[in-house]
Amino acid sequence: MLNRRRALTLGGVAVGSALMSAYSGISGTSEASAMAGMDSPPPTAGPEPKITPFAVRMPVPPTQRPVAVGDGMDVYHQTIRVVDEEMLPGLRTSVYTYGSGFVGPTIRARSGRPVIVRRTNRLPVRTNTHLHGGHVPADSDGHPMALMEPGESRTYCYPNEQPGATLWYHDHAHVLEAEGVYRGLHGFYLLESEDERYLGLPSGCYDIPIMLTDAHFDANGKMIFITDDGGGRKTLLANGRPQPYFPVAARRYRFRLLNGSNMRIFRLNLGGQVMTQIGSDGGLLPEPVEQTEFVLAPAERIEIVIDFARYRRGTKLVLADGDRPVLRFDVQWEEEDYSRVPDTLRPLPRLSDGPTDRQITFTSNLKEHKFFIDGKTYDANRIDAWVERNSTEIWRITNADAAGFQHSMHLHLVQFRVLDRDGAPPWPGESGLKDTVLVPPNTSVRIKIPFDGYRGVYVYHCHMLDHSAFGGMMAQFQVTDYLNESNER
């Protein structure tokens, strides 16, 4: 068990509860202007640069090494800062980063072994960091009001008391997070379980994380951020490069795909070729699922295996979003391959039965540019749902948005199970644990949620981050040891 006092000593600072009671002044302040104006082009900036598909190689995010190892835990330091990077060929782009590039360094952690991350904010704006999919104490969750001022440092404690999974960390500063994530405040956190080693899945340099995003560039390669600019973000990026290629051997690869974009829903295909899904947000599925197309909403992850041994050397396979190329795999050499995909991957934990305790409804008001959960905008001083620790609840999430918007529901702290969609079975690939689920217009999704382990205040929200940039589409739940008449709803 993680000794928190010892962990904070190793991290370099003692951290108390940073939850702020109010948030007036964030939107429209000088820090918002600093972020928005970082790369704002003049009106004469001209059209976007022409992108030649498959002209650059896709990089793999570097794996960060801990600065200290011992006492049963690993310690990392990260500096959040602005850097210039060549994202588009021949052009420099200013990005926010946890490391040295648009996609931050990958932290590879082990289930059951705690990780301590000490972060220092060298940005001109406030920020914080959420471990998306992490089962963590409330004071390390990255609550949107637990802001880090410029120049401030903070220590985050991640116990890693959960199964292996493709997690990620990203900015979660209230109102500012949409632009922060858009400009590069994100990275992979790959939690590896000892059980996976015996499955024989592709590993090492054949286990590749890929972050999929989109962006709007001006003629000089500067990123333009306009809220709800879905139509303007025409450049598709894989690990921060526009429509790149990636050389592969004629063997199996495991790809961990993350939709790190603010608004885009990817519909991924390999030209009709079969891909094998082995994992989702919360780790491995019970058994593999073969599909020719995957729907990936913002913040969702899928793990797939592609067997390039089925193709001759010289074959080029394009991963596309509909009919738009995202990434090309070039089969360039042959290798022996001892990996496999077993018929059974893992059993899922049994969840206790529970009634449908809550109804969650999404709506919007376009005239006021507001998005609502249960008719309310976010209030940091209000608890919207009280839940009992170690209980299991079933939530029905309904998208009643008359404007026809898609919404991507994310709950902090938990991994849940999708029970059904409008009474029909979940989509293929939703049989595992999830922390984010797409809710199309005029549909309902039921999920079963175990609120195990930690007490405290957490949030649930739409992960179409531009919606939260309007300040509205988020709510809070508090996990407590007991419910009474004053807090039962």
TrEMBL record:
Chain ranges of the Plastocyanin-like domain: 88-194, 249-309, 355-480
Family matches, as Pfam families: Cu-oxidase, Cu-oxidase_2, Cu-oxidase_3
GO molecular function: copper ion binding; oxidoreductase activity
Cited SUPFAM superfamilies: Cupredoxins
Coiled coil: none
Family, as annotated: Belongs to the multicopper oxidase family.
PANTHER family cross-referenced by the UniProt entry: BILIRUBIN OXIDASE (PTHR48267:SF1), CUPREDOXIN SUPERFAMILY PROTEIN (PTHR48267)
Official protein name in the record: Multicopper oxidase
Lineage: Bacteria, Bacillati, Actinomycetota, Actinomycetes, Pseudonocardiales
